[in-house]
Fold this sequence. Notes:
- The chain is an alpha+beta fold.
- The chain folds into two domains: 3-57 and 184-359, DD-peptidase/beta-lactamase superfamily (Beta-lactamase, 3-Layer(aba) Sandwich), CATH 3.40.710; 67-165, Methane Monooxygenase Hydroxylase, Chain G, domain 1 (Up-down Bundle), CATH 1.20.58.
- The chain is 31% helix and 18% strand.
- The chain is globular, with a radius of gyration of 19 Å.
Amino acid sequence: MFGKTIRCLxxxxxxxxxxGAQITVAKQGKLLLDHAVGENKKGEPLTSDHLMPWLSAGxxxxxxxxxQLWEQGKLDLNEPVANxxxxxxxNGKSAITVRHxxxxxxxxxxxxxxxxxxxxxxxxARVYAATVDEDAIPGETAAYHINGSWxxxxxxxxxxxxxxxxxxxxxxxxxxxxxxNTWMAMPEDVLNIDxxxxxxxxxxxxxxxxxxxxxxxxxxxxxxxPGSSLRGPTRNxxxxxxxxxxxxxxxxRQILKPDTVKAMTSRQRANKFDRTFQHVIDWGWGLIINSNxxxxxxxxxxxxxxxxxxxxxxxxMQSAVGFADPTHGLAVAWVCNGMPGEKLHxxxxxxxxxxxxxxxxxx
Length: 363
């Protein structure tokens, strides 16, 4: 059924864009494809059970955690973050709200400059000290935040609930819907058991291939990074999107209310030029909404040429995507374990996502 899609993944291996890839496709909740091609690292076959790094494709789980607290009346999306985290309000950030962060109009990309070596407290202290970008107007200027704002969402969870964000996401989202091998931060005992199943990431500038210098280290596996450290088989990420497609529930477990899912996956930010991506992109709350109407052959981190106008999801830097398409009932997730640069990745992603629809006769 997925001949064209699998050929795309294998061509990427042959071209040196990645060593291997893992992919899952579900339709109306039914698993249609759960497959892997190529190698995890040189000499080691990649399987559909490897725990792949999702990078930014895992961000929507933290967004759902924030919305769970909102549903419980513990957080107001329109309230300044500084009302809960006083330290965040310095250097022009006092009026930035949770809604601004979820839609990437906070305007403090200086906060993305967080060294990978910092522990949680040092990382959020760096974001507290961040200044508002030059000429940016918080609440108006659109510019995707890579990780700084996600540390703040994680700290909001910690201060409101008491649990670290990795514990909250694990206990309130992953475990209830059966995403048993999904972690934002792997406990030491789990890491010792699953070390051989960890998916690796490579820097690939064809024809050279080398392991990523940071993302394959132990601290990258064990420290919580709400914007980048989630990992698991792609079937789990597809399951997450199947839950959102089914109005926030799966197997009888309600994770979000239907009205919350509707708001999260609708255009909360529309027709704005994004300074980071250098393209007009529409956003829900923590999700990209299909932006093909702004240039389906140019939009970065899109969902292919044939995705429905209401498709929503999120990409992971030069490597991954997870998305849902309500028009066609599709939940899709894949990770390619090579990062070949933005230009080659965007071409690869568009080709893979387009092939999925063509294989299913949905073009």
